[in-house]
Amino acid sequence: QYQSFPYNKNGFKVGMKLEGVDPEHQSIYCVLTVAEVCGYRIRLHFDGYPDCYDFWVNADSSDIHPVGWCEKTGHKLHPPKGYKEEEFSWPSYLKACKAQAAPKSLFENQNTTVIPSGFRVGMKLEAVDKKNPTFICVATVTDMVDNRFLVHFDNWDESYDYWCEAASPHIHPVGWCKEHKRTLITPPDYPHAKHFSWEKYLEETSSLPAPARAFKVKPSHGFQKNMKLEVVDKRNPVFIRVATIVDTDDYRIKVHFDGWDSIYDYWTDVDSPDIHPAGWCTKTGHPLQPP
User: Fold this and answer.
1) N or C, which end of the chain is more exposed by having fewer CB within 10 Å?
2) What is the DSSP string of 228-279?
């Protein structure tokens, strides 16, 4: 639903400061500044770091929060480069930068009806490694915000972490691999990898499995081959291009950029914030790159 057309205008202005998730390390919250506004999208800059790390999000992204959100919710905020954590304070930082905090009202278009969930921080599950989608690994819920939770792969570094919802097709209850005769990737350096037993592992880590009823089934998507849409160019995300669906599976579509070589085709989740209906750019005031 949130992929269709936005209801409100993008109220962010260049120079406003906020807090948000680092897309490359999704367990980390950073100090960010709006560097560019284009239609319903904003380019965010990590304070104190080079522009090459800037990234684009939609104005209603769940990954961004108002100034003070981390403190209020008990999350660790990574200060700008050159600041020590204990010496960083928003009021003095904003004053020093002569900057404005992005108004809280701009974050209210985030879907806030929180659905009670059976997931809790610390619970274990089996999850697809999105960077290597053929792998299903031992994982843990390490953070929860609204209707999303953070999946962390046991004994791996946090660069593989990702946020998802209860209906995500990437997550499964403990025992799913065994039941579906798939290989479960055990945590690196786990001594009993050959004879991995969840029962034993849960006992050793004093953890609970996420209850099977907590996992929801996503209704099947309506995307079909040859449908047209507008898609962010992954290699150069400032651009949105005219694209065509060339293949689909249960929860992904393969997009082709019209007029471009098929080496640029890519698979993406159907709930990606980077795919839009035809007409989205015109409606939100964003340039569309023609074929």
Assistant:
1) N
2) EEEEE-TTSTT-EEEEEEEEE-SSEEEEEETTS-GGG-EEEETT-TTEE-TT
pLDDT value at position 161?
97
Give, in degrees to the nearest 5, the angle at Cα 127 between 123 and 130. Answer: 135
Task: Quote the pTM value.
Answer: 0.88
pLDDT confidence of residue 114: 72
Per-residue tokens: 99: 């900057």
pLDDT in tens, 186-216: 999 998 878 899 999 999 999 999 999 999 9
User: Measured between alpha carbons, how far is 212 from 203 in angstroms, rounded to an integer?
Assistant: 18
Return the beta strands (E) in the chain as ranges: 17-22, 25-38, 41-46, 55-58, 64-65, 77-78, 124-128, 136-145, 148-153, 162-164, 171-172, 184-185, 228-232, 240-248, 252-257, 266-269, 275-276
Q: Is residue 222 part of a domain?
A: no
Query: In this model, does residue 92 exceed pLDDT 50?
Result: yes
What tokens does 46 get?
């990590």
105: domain range? 16-110
- In angstroms, the CA 214 to CA 274 distance is 27
Please indicate, yes or no, if residue 117 is contained in any of the structural domains. Answer: no
- Domains contained in the chain, number: 3
Residues 31, 102, single domain; the answer is yes
CA distances from 10 to 25, 215, 255, 282 (A): 26, 33, 27, 14
